Amino acid sequence: MTASVETSAIVGTPAPHAEIAYEQIKAAIISGALAPGSRVSEQQLAEQLNVSRTPVHQAVVRLQNEEWLEVSSRRGVTIAPLRADEMREIYEVLIGLEGVAVASLASREPAADDEVDLELQDACSRCELALEEKNLRRWAAEDDRFHRLLIERSGNSRLARVAASVMEHAHRARLLTVNLRPWPSASNEDHARILQEISNRDPLRARTALEDHRRRGIATLVPILEAYSPQSGFAFMPIQQR
Amino acid sequence: MTASVETSAIVGTPAPHAEIAYEQIKAAIISGALAPGSRVSEQQLAEQLNVSRTPVHQAVVRLQNEEWLEVSSRRGVTIAPLRADEMREIYEVLIGLEGVAVASLASREPAADDEVDLELQDACSRCELALEEKNLRRWAAEDDRFHRLLIERSGNSRLARVAASVMEHAHRARLLTVNLRPWPSASNEDHARILQEISNRDPLRARTALEDHRRRGIATLVPILEAYSPQSGFAFMPIQQR
DNA sequence: TCCAGCCTACTTCCATGCGAGCTGGTATGC
DNA sequence: GCATACCAGCTCGCATGGAAGTAGGCTGGA
Question: Domains of chain B, with CATH numbers?
């Protein structure tokens, strides 16, 4: 018959409730709807998501394992706070993982009009465009897209999965601080230099360029995070409570 | 009153069933008791572990997320096969993560009789000892311990957690192939060189040394894995079935 | 002998009931 | 007025029953 647009990977299996709960709760944490340091109960989450407690509990355990929240037995769920030292550690991990990806990209056979090179250039241009339009939120999204593309095009799917999981934490921190940070003017130059070294097929320099870029990123992020109560995290958006 | 020895972290809470199931199943996969590519049902696992199906299901979902197995909806659980290309990817990820750890270790202030340096030297010696005794299984364990120490002493706990999770996959592959591989004579020299560069406080050379070491490791592992059916994985031990 | 269609057995997945334990508030004794 | 002990409410954790869905065998027909 007619083909309808697939909502996710395979249509027909309507996505299990546990998966829905996982995605929704994680999205709420990243966006800040569930504020860092706030407390909720699994029952509240279940009611808001219109599923029973079991799939919510599964999702919560999974999210705890990925360090998005902490569940104290019989005490409730605490959303992970945003701490400067945590972010420092995360950026170090990213340097390692993205470094491998970038070096791998720069180790391919050179080719004129290489498709991957062009794709990366395109993503880089979109960052510049968002910045010219002075749209910081879109810039954050495009910047995230650029970095995700770097690891996805490395050809190592395991690397991509691990890095994507870590990168989401960094993305959350950037989203919640995007209006507090100084104007990211140097970012695009960094990106351009990374791509330059990749198309030069120079793995060492490419990795160094990425490392410098990430270190500048954490250097701007840390003082912002430290300015806010470093223990309990902070909340831009109202905590969901009734 | 009298203090009794704690079994785990905090006594009084006797370790949740979900945690028990997670650890036991993962251990069974790593040891080969649950053979690569084999299929089991959650109910079978629950009966063997003497817990109900709920905590087993939670553990299984978590293990699927860490790529130890795959759960096909309403079809059962499939233990992850051992594939050469998977292992190649895992070793690349390890190069990135351990590289950061080693560089970080080599970036500390130099100090005579540095405690961490000595601890690493000790772990290295234990590898040599196991090799001199021609005890391959113990060598595999000591080698694992050495690499785990490298990341744990890096001072980055997030890095340690991520890397440990990935490293367990490599450890499983080594355990299941330990009797098939050539004698690991060069391994100790590699370790010694890494430690040398760390105590020289030379981050770049230390990272390069580790990279070389890991590349040699995957170069010996891949042909062994490829010699066995690369699609379905392989089974050294009998599959648990009734 | 081969093929097609049905049907049974088995699997994961979800909802709900119950139990154990922690927290915060309140009342009582000093 | 203050400290302490108790109690009620709320929370997670686990077990169990039912529902939905798939795979593979089995039967009937050509």
Answer: 5-79 (1.10.10.10), 84-227 (1.20.120.530)
